[in-house]
Design brief:
Blueprint: H1 2-15, H2 24-29, H3 37-45, E1 52-58, H4 68-79, E2 84-88, E3 93-98, H5 103-111, E4 116-121, H6 166-172, E5 180-185, E6 203-204, H7 209-212, H8 246-255, E7 272-277, H9 286-296, E8 319-322, H10 332-344, E9 347-351, E10 369-375, E11 391-396, E12 414-416, E13 425-427, H11 437-454, H12 460-469, H13 511-527, E14 533-536, E15 541-549, E16 552-567, E17 578-581, E18 586-594, E19 597-611
Helix pairs in contact: 3-5, 6-13, 8-11, 9-10, 11-13, 12-13
């Protein structure tokens, strides 16, 4: 009996099955018999009336006799609806049009015909959308801004191989405004013309009156009043500083209004920004920062200082950006907060720090955080960036190349011209530069937000794995001759060096690759909603929705089969999820669909693993 069942499974794999077979004779007889009209009729019933355009290829051995016009007429007769020939694209391939069917309906109707090898939508392609934000483009005047424009968002080139390829990612996903990225920072200038329409109502958590600089402690106004200091105000040895407008710069990289005809584009395009002010003059206290993190994520409604004050956050963030830090280990307070956030499904992204190659700063070095190191436009570690095993990925942080004159490769973003208090809203440029790992982290946060826009079900662990899996390799050439490979961080500084996966994370951030994988996984997860894996007899590929390998669970795995060893109990699956046994080298498939036939408890050996999805 087992031998017969194995024969039937393989026969389905090579010849196709219309329904679960009753005997080998029925399978052999059905090889050239068209399926019942039910699937076709269902597809036709779903037609919306919009004009259908498809490209169809007929099987060489069973194609209808005649030319393209004859085949279109044959299809019309089969479907009971007029289908016209469009254009010949090969001996057995042609486009077809129908006015009375939807494209989806026509595809579904043709797919069930055994004479059809494949059918796809005849899609319209357009020139890639380019944002009309004037500072996005290259060729800016040196006196006004960087000549390279927003180089870091474009597709990598020989000049800027570190660019994150957000431009192509936007073709796939421009971001959902319901996806919120919290910017925990110095506050945001809410009236900046490139931010005013993108920010959600936030909160000011700075509780120290002397560093608040706005005359109040915690309140509902997350505007940045400026963080300028006088000499010795923060530390006796520190000089005076001008206002940084740091939070506004970070917010612009994540969520500045894009394609609005002014200023800059943002990596997150249409995602929203939640301003959470936790830093004032001389920085901010852990207690204010952690309170802001928990409130931003919707884990706490208590915003009080000294006494409880209930103020719920109506726009909880799914991503937190932390572009600050200090040297030291991850404290118990941060570790506990990160665990709560990850448990809630909130992804935390943090800058690795700007201590010239020293160990990763805290809180970026906390477990559960995506730590981001900074790279130059050519992909080498930028001199000021920290490094270490805690880094997940690297992203452009801005670099000037030259030691004098205009900075060539800063990250252009939103800012303000005021030296102490807000004055004119403007943008950073070649002379008023934005450089630092503080500005590398927002590019990753925006990428995560786009991934969640494409696939809201991703966990923080999924996201970290996918960012690493889709990262591009670090370059090993291209810098000056005296640049060497980055060493493990110690107490000495390391300036520019060639990154490795032990020092700078998995590789160079690729927003396009990460968003594409997230979107593809969402489609795959939808396709596997009936929990059955799919075997395609045409390609010989087995697509597995979920597979357990030891204690790890992977999604979206594609393999080719070497041998079918066994078909187990055919009454139903003996185990809920497919599993791979490392010790035996066999894959046990809980349910597999071959055309319309469903088989249970199938044991196979693998020829090749074509794709490994993301682990939980």
């Amino acid at each position: 009996m087992l031998r017969i069942l194995l024969f039937l499974f393989l026969l389905c794999a090579t010849s196709g099955c219309s329904e679960a077979p009753e005997s080998s004779t029925s399978v052999l007889a059905s090889k050239q018999v068209a399926p019942t009209a039910d699937p076709t009729q269902r597809a036709l019933n779903q037609a919306s009336g919009s004009r259908a355009r498809v490209i169809v290829k007929f099987r060489k051995r069973s194609a209808p006799v005649g030319d393209e016009l004859s085949r279109a007429a044959w299809v019309s007769g089969k479907l009971g609806s007029r289908v016209r020939h469009g254009r010949a694209l090969g001996e057995f391939t042609q486009s077809m049009h129908a006015d009375s069917l939807s494209t989806t309906g026509l595809i579904q109707a043709l797919e069930v015909l055994p004479e059809v090898e494949w059918v796809v939508e005849d899609r319209r392609h357009r020139i890639r959308s380019m944002p009309n934000d004037p500072l996005f483009f290259a060729g800016q005047p040196r006196s006004g801004t960087v000549e390279a424009g927003q180089w870091f968002l474009r597709t990598p080139s020989s000049l800027t191989p570190a660019a994150i390829d957000a431009l192509r990612a936007w073709d796939r996903q421009k971001g959902n405004p319901q996806v919120v990225v919290a910017v925990l920072d110095s506050g945001v200038l809410l009236n900046h013309p490139d931010l005013v329409a993108k920010v959600r109502p936030g909160y000011d958590f700075v509780s120290d009156l002397s560093s608040a600089a706005d005359g109040t402690r915690r309140d509902t106004d997350p505007n940045d009043p400026g963080d300028a200091t006088v000499a010795g105000e923060c530390d006796p040895s520190e000089p005076a500083t001008e206002s940084s407008w740091h939070g506004t710069q970070v917010a612009g990289l994540i969520g500045a209004a894009t394609d609005n005809g002014i200023g800059i584009a943002s990596a997150g395009h249409d995602v929203s920004v939640l301003p959470v002010r936790v830093l004032g003059k001389c920085g901010g206290y852990d207690s204010d920062i952690i309170a802001g993190m928990l409130w931003a994520a919707g884990l706490s409604t208590n915003v009080g200082f000294g006494r409880p004050v209930n103020y719920p956050n109506p726009f909880p963030a799914s991503v937190l950006n932390l572009s600050f830090g200090s040297q030291g280990t991850c404290s118990r307070s941060y570790a506990d907060a990160m665990a709560q956030l990850n448990q809630k499904g909130v992804t935390v992204v943090a800058a690795a720090g700007n201590d010239a190659g020293l160990p990763v700063s805290t809180p970026a070095n906390c477990s559960g955080v995506i730590a981001v190191a900074g790279i130059r436009h050519i992909g080498t570690k930028v001199g000021y960036s920290n490094i270490g095993a805690e880094v997940s990925i690297s992203a452009p942080a801005g670099n000037c190349v030259n030691l004098g004159g205009p900075c060539l490769y800063p990250l252009v973003t939103t800012t303000n011209s005021g030296r102490r208090t807000p004055e004119s809203n403007t943008y950073s440029d070649a002379f008023n530069t934005s450089v630092g790992t503080s500005f590398a982290a927002p590019l990753v946060s925006a990428t995560v937000a786009l991934m969640l826009s494409a696939n809201p079900g991703l966990s923080p662990a999924n996201i970290r794995s996918m960012l690493k899996r889709t990262a591009r390799p670090f370059p090993t050439t291209g810098a000056q001759s005296d640049v060497s490979v980055c060493d493990k961080p110690s107490g000495r500084e390391q300036l520019e060096c060639y990154c490795t996966t032990r020092t700078c994370g998995a590789g160079l951030l690729s927003t396009y690759n990460a968003v594409r994988l997230a979107a593809d996984l969402a489609l795959t997860q939808s396709a596997y909603r009936d929990n059955a894996d799919l075997y395609d007899p045409e390609t010989g590929q087995l697509q597995i929705g979920q597979v357990d390998v030891g204690s790890d669970r992977f999604h979206n795995v594609v393999v080719t089969i070497d041998q079918v060893l066994a078909l187990g109990n055919q009454a139903g699956p003996d185990y809920p999820i497919s599993r791979f046994d490392r010790s035996k080298g066999v894959l046990e498939v809980a349910q597999v669909r071959v055309n319309t036939a469903l088989f249970y408890n199938v044991t196979v050996t693998l020829k090749e693993v074509l794709q490994i999805g993301v682990p939980d």
